[in-house]
UniProtKB/TrEMBL annotation:
Sorted UniProt keywords: Isomerase, Metal-binding, Zinc
NCBIfam families according to UniProt: manA
Gene: gmuF
Residue span(s) of domain Mannose-6-phosphate isomerase cupin: 238-315
Recorded family membership: Belongs to the mannose-6-phosphate isomerase type 1 family.
Top EC category: isomerase
CDD domains: cupin_PMI_type_I_N_bac
EC number of the protein: 5.3.1.8
InterPro entries: Carb_Metab_Reg_Kinase/Isom, Man6P_Isoase-1, Man6P_isomerase_Firm_short, MPI_cupin_dom, PMI_typeI_cat, RmlC-like_jellyroll, RmlC_Cupin_sf
Source taxonomy: Bacteria, Bacillati, Bacillota, Bacilli, Bacillales
Protein name: Mannose-6-phosphate isomerase
Catalyzed reaction equations: D-mannose 6-phosphate = D-fructose 6-phosphate
Swiss-Prot/TrEMBL cofactor(s): Zn(2+)
């Protein structure tokens, strides 16, 4: 019988990280500058470990290769998605990611990186950078060379519960005081354009990648703002955020014991608030705030009993 896979996250220290992953979710973090929780990951730079069942102790990368029936016998060679929780205790670098075509040629065959953000929490007055004001590549380059970041960068005010879709080629950055669930293609390729002249603990500035960024950035910037749709079922409200070429993302607000139909694809789930009990064929599985899991393809009808908020995703 197939069962959910609950995953042990991997944590990454970052120059801009803090302690929100511990304070909000109770994670055991490696330091006071922990920026990233790789919650559902089969990437070579960090693969999540299965916590439960007969596959306990294996990495998600291993399970992807050894148990294709769990995922509906996928044809892809690599697990397509990566789910993170990001603690932007300080501003992240202004950056851009390549698309698949560019990454295959210039990044050793890796995937490109289209991503999306669900704002779990943020300080009052928080903002993020999404896009730019340059009309041409020449203007983009001139604004960078002159250091006119206020003239170049497009800033947006944000609040908890906001959702943003960030296609490859979009100049972007999370800013100080933001806690975000990120769902993205399974890629770790980032081209930094600006890093606030910061130095690491060794007094060194992080590398910038202006040349590659110039080759992949969308000029002029075009908005990609999906329009969410809301559907109510018994004991739950389902918000559909995006159905893209790479992933579909939803929010499930559960209050009671809603029943969900069987699904053909596997689902990635992250509990951002509350707790619940997943039940399938009479077997129960506890999920709580900070839990991350995968429901297998053709899992069958299941219920979730409790009061909780989950972000659900599946590959396209």
């Amino acid at each position: 019988m197939k069962h959910p896979l609950f995953l042990e996250p991997i944590f990454k220290e970052r120059i801009w990280g803090g302690t929100a992953l511990r304070d909000r979710f109770g994670y055991s973090i490696p330091s006071e500058k922990t920026g990233e929780c790789w919650a559902v990951s089969a990437h070579a730079n960090g693969s999540s470990t299965i916590q439960n069942g007969r596959l306990a102790g294996k990495t998600l990368d291993q399970v992807w290769k050894e148990c294709p029936e769990f995922f509906g016998f996928p044809q892809r060679s690599v697990f397509p998605l990566l789910v993170k929780v990001l603690d932007a205790n300080m501003d992240l670098s202004v950056q851009v990611h390549p698309d698949d075509d560019y990454a295959i040629v210039h990044e050793n065959g890796d995937l490109g990186k289209t991503e999306c953000w669900y704002i779990i929490d943020c300080k009052e007055g928080a903002e993020l950078i999404l896009g730019h004001h340059a009309g041409t590549k020449e203007e983009f380059k001139q604004l960078i060379e002159s250091g006119d970041w206020n003239g170049l960068l497009r800033r947006i005010n944000i609040k908890p519960g906001d959702f943003f879709y960030v296609p490859s080629g979009t100049l972007h950055a999370l800013c100080e005081g933001t806690l975000v669930l990120e769902i993205q293609q399974n890629s770790d390729t980032t081209y930094r354009v600006y890093d606030y002249e910061r130095c690491n603990d060794h007094g060194q500035k992080r590398d910038l990648h202006i040349e590659k960024a110039m080759e992949v950035v969308n000029i002029p910037h075009t908005d990609s703002e999906p329009i969410p749709s809301v559907k109510e079922i018994k004991d739950a409200v389902i918000t559909s955020y995006v159905q893209s070429d790479y992933f579909s993302v939803y929010k499930w607000n559960v209050s009671g014991k809603p029943v969900f139909p069987s699904h053909q694809t596997y689902l990635l789930g992250s509990v951002v608030e509350g707790s619940g009990i997943i039940e399938n064929n009479g077997v129960q599985y506890e999920c709580k705030k900070g839990s991350h899991f995968i429901l297998p393809a053709h899992f069958g009808e299941f219920s979730i009993e409790g009061t909780c908020e989950l972000i659900i995703a599946h590959p396209s």
